[in-house]
Amino acid sequence: MSLFDHLVIFPVLIPFFVAVVMLFPRLNNSLSAQRIVAVATNLLMVVVAFALLFRVEEQGIQTYVLGDWSAPFGIVLVADLFSVLMVCLSAILGLAVTLYATGGEDRTGAFFYSLIMFQVMGINGAFLTGDAFNLFVFFEVLLIASYSLMIHGGGKHRTQANIHYVFLNLIGSSLFLFGLGTLYGTLGTLNFADMADRVPLLSSNELLIAKSGALLLLAVFGLKAAMLPLHFWLPKAYSATSTPVAALFAIMTKVGIYSIWRVHGVIFGDQAGELANIALPWLWPIALLTIVAGSIALLASKSLRVLCSNLVIVSVGTLLITISLNTVQATAAGIYYLLHSTVACAAMFLLAGLIQQQRGQAEDRFVAARAMSQSGILGFIFALLAIALIGMPPLSGFVGKALILQSVTVASQAMWVFPILLGGGLIALIALSRAGTSLFWKTTGANTSALKGHPNQYLAIGLLVAILPLMVIFGGTVSDYAQLAAEQLKSGLSLQQLNEVTK
Amino acid sequence: MHYFWVPFLPMFGIIVPLLANKLNRSACTLATALLPALALGLIFLDLPAVLAGESFSQSVDWIPQLGLSLSFRLDGLAALFSILILGIGLLVILYARYYLSEKDNMGYFYSYLIMFMTAMLGIVMSNNMLQLWFFWELTSISSFLLIGFWSHNSDARKGARMALTITGAGGLALLAGIILLGQVVGSYELDVVLNSGELVKQSPYYIAILSLFLIGAFTKSAQFPFHFWLPHAMAAPTPVSAYLHSATMVKAGIFLLARFYPVLAGTETWFVVVSLTGLFTLLLGAYTALFKHDLKGLLAYSTISHLGLIVLLLGLNTELAAIAAIFHIMNHAVFKASLFMAAGIIDHESGSRDMRKINGLLKYMPITATLAMVASASMAGVPLLNGFLSKEMFFAETLEQSILGAMSWLIPVLATIAGAFSVAYSLRFIHDVFFNGEPKGLTKTPHEPPRYMRVPVEILVTICLLVGIFPNYTIGPLLESTSLAVLNHELPEYSLSIWHGFNLPLLMSGLAATGGVAIYLNRKHLFKFAGMFPDIDAKIVFESCIQAAVAWAQKVNMKLENGSLQRYAFCLCFFALLLIAPPLFDLDTTRGSLPETPINGAVLVAAILIIAGSLATIIWSHYRLIALLMLSLVGLVVSITFAYFSAPDLALTQLSVEIVTVILLLLALYFFPQQTPTSKSRPSHFVRDLTVASFIGCIIGAICFALMTHPLDSISEFFLANSKTGGGGTNVVNVILVDFRGFDTFGEITVLGIAALGIHKLIARMRLSMRTKDYDGRLWAKDKYPVLLSVVSQSLLPLFLLISAYIFMRGHNLPGGGFIAGLITSIALIQQYLAHGVDWMEKRVNVSYHYMIAAGLTIAGLTGLGSWIFGRPFLTSWFEYVSLPWIGKFELASALVFDIGVYFTVIGATLLILASLGKLTTKDRLTVGER
Amino acid sequence: MELVYAICVGFMSACGIFLMLRGHTFTLVIGLTLLSYAVNLFLFASGGLTIGEPAVLSSSENYADPLPQALVLTAIVIGFAMTAFAVILAMRGRADLGSDHVDGIEPFDPLAEEKS
């Protein structure tokens, strides 16, 4: 087994070991060393992630059989087009966040980079694992890391927000275990592929029990994904926490979405016989209402970070729509949109951090304040991100939105999706143009402080912003990839296929 | 083909001004103008072929999934608009060089302008609907930047935002329309779409598509009821008004109508909606324009009315009308642009645009005056000027329709009235500004502008004259090819001559002219009449609408996100309940086929204890200490339950975790009030929570019962079969933990480690004020560390360590293992802390516990990596039986090393948590500083 | 016996969830612990109940289902970590917000955030 055959597990192991190493005296005591290691590691992560991506593109699905115990008995990591794409996304995000943090936010508390690494480990694990209980474990890893990161930097509002976030998710975790127990008790297995195989064979009684177990998981993932009515924790949490953490969290909701896709879109998807698409009747209204609620909150936002948080919620609703449409087309559109919205929101969170730094007491609130010392460049970036998030050309937002609209072919669905999606866009337009004009144009007196953003912070934002036009220019490649990933996801993976791939 | 590069040249041109900004103004201007000029040249290269009636198109794939391709076409329509955009654009660039002051950032201005130019070219040359939309939105964005260019003044900000919102909304509608149309036709390429008009008109979506397209067009072209943004866009610098709001952007909507004329036009709906909208806008604009004192305001409304005129013509559904419309598009662009520029000059050189102040400018700026007068004459439709020709055609066409059936004669009448008003406001423009006495209260004395600032106006006015006098030689061919492109089939007979003999249209013009003069002469009364109506400022209305919406949103949001965790938690539980309940209702019985094991006394007692304990925990949850005791009772019974149901490992683990947790909670309780204030939670909530909680409880219980009574064919057999042979251990549970599912354990200890780190973070910044007394007012015991306790615990320590070592070693084959051993060790050490205090311990055990965590995790991780050496995947176990003299045969397993990792992580984590908490408790009783 | 067991599990989870819906952090922690007991018992039972046949290989021919036991072990540990964090967070909340109510005393307002 050459080193390359271990590639699949690298995204989990690299952050783990680096995080641990950074706890040892030598590194733990020198922040500058930690910074170098962290950035270097994240660069490596990006390389690894894309290496894995190309490998999967060439040789098809890659698996990693932990402890050499083949599925369904051991735990298997499955890297298919979709999961590996998500890993790439998290790698890029991790790099940006770490870069940004080197600008100074890492000073305000202990173990920052270790925790970031653990967080990334958890996220990647959740994307790659092919085992239900292992998914739970990695959920816990990323959750506990996020609990600890959220209070980074201190301040009563972070504590306050964290209390809500933590206790809600603790309930969520308990429900997760109830759900898993139910599924194991009916299916007698934990491997996704094996579960998918066994679901259609259930007897009528077990069928219904398994159904409620599966739907319980929907609530759990829904909480992570912040879908209505489980989204209330998000705006407070994301707007209270420190800038890089908020940016990293932009992908956390997507983990929930991803899991819904995996579990309710595939295991309980079209091939699930009696239990086919049990989640859809719930997801349809939830998706639309999430967008509506998110848009209302968007209009109500009084500060840039709250506004970003609500944009995240709207994007979640939009993704849920693509899940509910339940076609390969829609899934592909969803995957494209997922990439776009994650990157754009993360970038906006980072930008909000800089804006807040330079506006003194006014922070990032939409009130007249002194001009920012770097308002030129900040304004430019804001304009770009706003355009992307509204879904206007020339940035990736419009491709995602158009793809989604296109994938709606049934008139009865179009009746709902078109107005709500476009109306949401209009509200985003109003909210963001108000935000922009009041942040950058409505200034009282010239700037007094010489406070400037750290070059690394701009580098971090630049890294993310650069992706948006690239996703349009190479939109053909990206959307084709999304198409393939969607087909692969929708076609499902039986245990037999899984073990054949492993051979 | 040259034309393919036309949109790209300006695209690169966007950055030029930013680079050239450092140079002097003229150089910057030249540099900026270079690429557009080149583009214009390219157009003229292809023009002959186009005039010959050809139309070209070529496309390159871009995003196939989306049906978006890089696809441009050049036909008459595209050519006409490109020439307008580039030609007038160049003039505006020249003009702006003199108009902009030193303060304005020329580079940015030009850059925005070129961006807009690119976008417009993109629209008119697109051969792909999505690409067309792409550029359509770009015009909205760039115009937002241009209108808001003077961002320091609030009118500009508001105007810009309003324009963006309205046109942006239109853009979204258009996108929806385009996608629908694309789905109907099955392609987004215009070549295909334009030739499937019938298909579209038959389709059930036609009405939807049409209305969406019309919303797009009307918002952009400021048609009623979306017209109100245009006048406020006049806050922009005048070159922008001249370019965007007369010649180009507002024509984009009309271009859209013209472009999709073959697909959408020709139906009853189109006829009624389009022409009536146009007619109304025509009248409204013409009437309002007369009363505007602001020069640009007057021009803005006249623009609105002229746009209405064109829309009306397109709506009439006759081919000649369409041709007239196209003709008027050209003419209006030319004379209106020149008028705006003239207005700009006047503003620039006299310091005001208020027609009540600027009078009699003729003798101050005679040349400009003459030019402006010619242009406005053309606007009024005076013979020998281009405006006259198209207006004649317009009048002629209004006679050729029957929108209103028997009342159709109204249309020409109204048209004539509108004509009269346009004559009137043109007269007012001329008379008020250039004659009518002396200027009043101007800051500076007016004078002629710099030579080259006037050049653009001169050029445009000359065109007015040439076209007006020799239409056939100047504009004829282009008009013909354009009309061909619009109608998409051979043209009917029409003539472009000044003199058609005495006929009805001529009479209408005459009436309009005389009427106009009459209106202007009696303007006093009209002004009085108009003065009686409150003049509504659309800006304020619009802003207040937005404000209202925001306020409403905030109210609703407050209701939803009321910041109460209890609400959120309830939502979660209730939602979960909604999800899991329904399936069980369909279930006839939860009892499965398996026989129930008979119940016995012990179990019953345990059950009673559990229920009583839980109940007590709730009832006394306000008395926290008692609640805690009850809780630990339950925990105890739970661990016994595990033991009873043949899960010794669980029992041990549960027990040790139980102990540590209770210690933790007790320590924590020291910082909390001993009682929970009862008043806080409302009775209604109490009931609500109780209901949902018990429902969930019932369902969980039901499912649990069902699971226990249903036969399960699970993968567990495999573990039992392979534990010894494959995992080298007889304690299957432990083998699963460290081998079969070692990865879970790997993650699990990671969680433990992270938790410890997080807790360290939490405690590091914690500032707690200690109490000098306990909550019943008693002082704390004097002797912190009772001798007895310390002696006993110290003597017990070795024993504990021995036990944990034993538990650890047997783990693989008998109940036990790293985790339990770790906890036992930690408990022993904690006992020392309790007995001797933190300082005493720190003297003896000077390890920083998070290093221990790191060490533990590293050991576990490296054990996993070890298997790579043997070419096996992560965490593959290895074991061997070796026999040594005296000791005998024993097993060496990599799993054991892994378990050592677990062992240390557990100790590190537990002690990091408890020790750092202990530090808090034993610190200075008054305050605890940050460590 | 299964029935009794199920009733206990249901009852405990009901109590746990009820306490999790209260307004004070310490109560929530207690509720969380109670709930996790219930969860563990539930998960444990998902493989069915067996008496006196621990999954330690010996002469006996049928054993308790070991997999749920392993899962519960993991769940217990993770639960322990989470509970510990929750407790300390509750203390931190009391320290920072001067109250042990989950919402702090004053309603939260993300706009009036202090520099930290």
Summarize the structure.
The complex is a heterotrimer of chains A (503), B (931) and C (116). With 503 residues, chain A is mainly alpha-helical.
Shape type of chain B: elongated
- What are the low-pLDDT stretches of chain C, counting only 5+ consecutive residues below 50? 106-116
Largest sheet of chain C: none
Question: What proportion of the residues of chain C form beta strands (DSSP E)?
Answer: under 5%
Termini of chain B, distance in Å? Answer: 75 Å
Overall SS class of chain B: mainly alpha
The residue fraction in helices of chain B comes out at over 70%
Please report the two chains with the greatest interface, counting residues with C-beta closer than 8 angstroms to the partner's C-beta: A-B, 120 and 118 residues
For the CA atoms, what is the radius of gyration of chain C? 20 Å
Spatial order of the strands in the main sheet of chain B? 1-2
| Number of distinct helices of chain B | 38
Describe this structure in words.
By secondary structure, chain A is mainly α. Helix content of chain A is 74%, strand content 2%. Chain A has a two-stranded antiparallel sheet. A two-stranded antiparallel sheet of chain B has the order 1-2. Chain B has a two-stranded antiparallel sheet with strand order 3-4. In chain B, a hairpin with a 3-residue loop joins strand 3 and strand 4 (888-893). Chain C has 116 residues and is mostly helical. Helix content of chain C is 62%, strand content 0%. Chain C is elongated, with a radius of gyration of 20 Å. The interface between B and C is large, with 115 and 86 residues.
List keywords for this structure.
heterotrimer, B: mainly alpha, two-stranded antiparallel sheet, disordered C terminus, C: 116 residues, mainly alpha, elongated
How would you summarize the topology of this molecule?
The complex is a heterotrimer of chains A (503), B (931) and C (116).
Chain A: H1 10-21, H2 25-28, H3 31-59, E1 62-65, E2 76-79, H4 81-101, H5 112-128, H6 132-150, H7 156-187, H8 192-198, H9 204-225, H10 233-240, H11 243-249, H12 252-267, H13 280-300, H14 304-325, H15 328-358, H16 375-390, H17 397-407, H18 411-441, H19 455-473, H20 475-491, H21 495-502
Antiparallel strand pairs in A: 1-2
Helix pairs in contact in A: 1-3, 1-5, 3-4, 4-5, 4-11, 4-15, 4-19, 5-6, 6-7, 7-9, 7-10, 9-12, 10-11, 10-14, 11-15, 12-14, 13-14, 13-18, 14-15, 14-18, 15-16, 15-17, 15-19, 15-20, 16-18
Chain B: H1 8-13, H2 15-20, H3 25-51, E1 56-63, E2 68-74, H4 76-99, H5 106-125, H6 129-147, H7 154-185, H8 190-194, H9 197-202, H10 206-220, H11 229-232, H12 238-247, H13 249-259, H14 261-264, H15 268-290, H16 295-315, H17 319-350, H18 366-380, H19 386-398, H20 410-434, H21 451-469, H22 471-474, H23 476-487, H24 504-521, H25 523-531, H26 538-560, H27 565-586, H28 601-619, H29 624-644, H30 648-669, H31 683-709, H32 716-727, H33 732-740, H34 742-764, H35 787-810, H36 818-844, H37 849-869, E3 879-884, E4 888-893, H38 894-922
Antiparallel strand pairs in B: 1-2, 3-4
Helix pairs in contact in B: 3-4, 3-5, 4-5, 4-12, 4-17, 4-21, 4-23, 5-6, 6-7, 7-10, 10-13, 12-17, 13-16, 15-16, 15-20, 16-17, 16-20, 17-18, 17-19, 17-21, 17-23, 18-20, 18-21, 19-21, 19-24, 20-24, 27-31, 28-29, 29-30, 30-36, 30-38, 32-33, 33-34, 34-37, 34-38, 35-36, 36-38, 37-38
Chain C: H1 2-20, H2 25-45, H3 66-97
